[in-house]
UniProtKB/TrEMBL annotation:
<dbReference type="InterPro" id="IPR003917">
    <property type="entry name" value="NADH_UbQ_OxRdtase_chain2"/>
</dbReference>
<keyword id="KW-0496">Mitochondrion</keyword>
<keyword id="KW-0830">Ubiquinone</keyword>
<feature type="transmembrane region" description="Helical">
    <location>
        <begin position="148"/>
        <end position="166"/>
    </location>
</feature>
<feature type="transmembrane region" description="Helical">
    <location>
        <begin position="266"/>
        <end position="293"/>
    </location>
</feature>
<dbReference type="InterPro" id="IPR001750">
    <property type="entry name" value="ND/Mrp_TM"/>
</dbReference>
<keyword id="KW-0679">Respiratory chain</keyword>
<protein>
    <recommendedName>
        <fullName>NADH-ubiquinone oxidoreductase chain 2</fullName>
        <ecNumber>7.1.1.2</ecNumber>
    </recommendedName>
</protein>
<feature type="transmembrane region" description="Helical">
    <location>
        <begin position="92"/>
        <end position="115"/>
    </location>
</feature>
<comment type="function">
    <text>Core subunit of the mitochondrial membrane respiratory chain NADH dehydrogenase (Complex I) which catalyzes electron transfer from NADH through the respiratory chain, using ubiquinone as an electron acceptor. Essential for the catalytic activity and assembly of complex I.</text>
</comment>
<keyword id="KW-0249">Electron transport</keyword>
<dbReference type="InterPro" id="IPR050175">
    <property type="entry name" value="Complex_I_Subunit_2"/>
</dbReference>
<feature type="transmembrane region" description="Helical">
    <location>
        <begin position="59"/>
        <end position="80"/>
    </location>
</feature>
<keyword id="KW-1278">Translocase</keyword>
<feature type="transmembrane region" description="Helical">
    <location>
        <begin position="202"/>
        <end position="219"/>
    </location>
</feature>
<keyword id="KW-0520">NAD</keyword>
<dbReference type="Pfam" id="PF06444">
    <property type="entry name" value="NADH_dehy_S2_C"/>
</dbReference>
Amino acid sequence: MNRTVSLFLLATLALGTSLVILSKHWFPIWLGLELSTLSLLPILNLNTWSRGNEATLKYFLVQAFSAAILLNGAILNLWITGNWEISSTQDPLVHSTITLALIIKLGLAPCHFWFPDVLSGLTFNNGIIIACWQKIAPLFLLVNLNSFVLSELIITCSVLSALIGAWGGLNQVSIRKILAYSSIGHMGWISCTTFFSEETAILLFAFYLLNNVLIFCICNTKDLYSLSSLSKVNSNPTSALLFSLALLSLGGLPPLGGFINKLIPLSIFTLNNSLLIIPLFITASLMSLYFYLRVTFNTSLTLFPQNSLGLLTSRSLTNSTQLFIISALAPLTIWGLLLIPAFYLFI
């Protein structure tokens, strides 16, 4: 694709997300969601293999379906209240309809089935957009609606997402599917925290973005598509260290920053007397930590148990953009891993 066309599509993608964030009316919000989806499709369709085209088509159908549900909810709200304002969204039926659309867009359970299939069929560069950037707009809407939406629905879907994200990642050997289920689990933590504390949820989401972008960039530069290829990370000690720290921090292993990012939501649930969901989130965290440790262990191996010697040869890094992103995120990641726990002590 032409460089000018690519920049135009990326600018349109950013414009659509900005329109959702800055708007207070449902119609511009729906327009921004559709604009970001349509501008992303040509970027995803650059894949020349059939699996990538299938993933692009699945993504389009899911996003179009969820946007249609959201528009129907906004029109129903217009019919009841007579305006497009977000603040006037108080009818239970409108709540349920719009919340369902946001759950589909975020990939929360039980509407999570599309996310691992789509992410496993795309490149890591496109995966960054799907797993990170495209979560910003629906999560922002969820934050704005947290005083109106049905708490039982959000909390139930969040707990299911944390459990399914942890359970689904246990039996995977594909790195992209592991990252997909990891994203489902983390969005469960973030969306549940959103209902109780918006500021904490934003910090959790920022930490999630920081670690995920770094992991996706390292996987892209090293061609890490399965557990058997993780030995390629050892060719660069810095990448291996950052990759392991980011994974273990996402898993919540103490004393890394991810442990505090799970401890703070649990304390918030306790303060709000939501004691029944705490054992479920702890169970999900322990299960997810297992496959994070599994990936980290395979990273330290010189030779995968069922691997051939041919897989030991690593490709030299030729993508200067990815190297620049990794080098730029390295100090930020170290800050997030080491200083975020200290930051939480003062809030």
